[in-house]
Amino acid sequence: MRIISGLYKSRKIVAPKTLPVRPTTDMAKESLFNIINNLFYFDDITVLDLFAGTGNISYEFASRGTQNITCVDQDYGCVKFINQTAETFKMPISTIKSDVFKFLEKSNLQANIIFADPPYNFSEEQFAKIPELVFQNNLLLEDGILIIEHSKHTNLSNLNHYDYSKGYGGSVFSFFEIG
């Protein structure tokens, strides 16, 4: 994977093949950040990266100037890799090793952008639980967005707070808002 833009533009980050991950493709990531760039100033936001995996999305935020980034993943190897990478590049990323659903149930950490990249084979109920917990626990700041990455074979348009989706290849980003 590579960082698309910002301070660390074009840097390649190679994750161990043993991590249980499916990183967001560069094409999809670039398209996603074009959307986010039109909505937020990167240096003014707080980001929560759920099912963080390799930290791919968080590195992009950090490279673009975001100073408050929290990654949540239940896999020890993923958390360790994110910590090592963040330290190497001096990125302002903190990690929490936790089951994402348990984290969402107990957290009071609010963010402007909550990005979730759960396994594509999640059931409809598992996908639905993400926005349910985010909005139930008021984890989004005013004018914030929840973005869930999923397969093109999954449709989240029937969920509460759904706003719109954008597809890129086999990946789709669904956007959710408070209003």
Automatic annotation (TrEMBL):
GO biological processes: methylation
Molecular functions per Gene Ontology: methyltransferase activity
InterPro entries reported in the protein's UniProt record: DNA_methylase_N6_adenine_CS (IPR002052), RNA_MeTrfase_RsmD (IPR004398), SAM-dependent_MTases_sf (IPR029063)
Assigned keywords, A-Z: Methyltransferase, Transferase
A Pfam family of this chain: Cons_hypoth95
Name used for this protein in its record: RsmD family RNA methyltransferase
Protein's organism: Flavivirga aquimarina
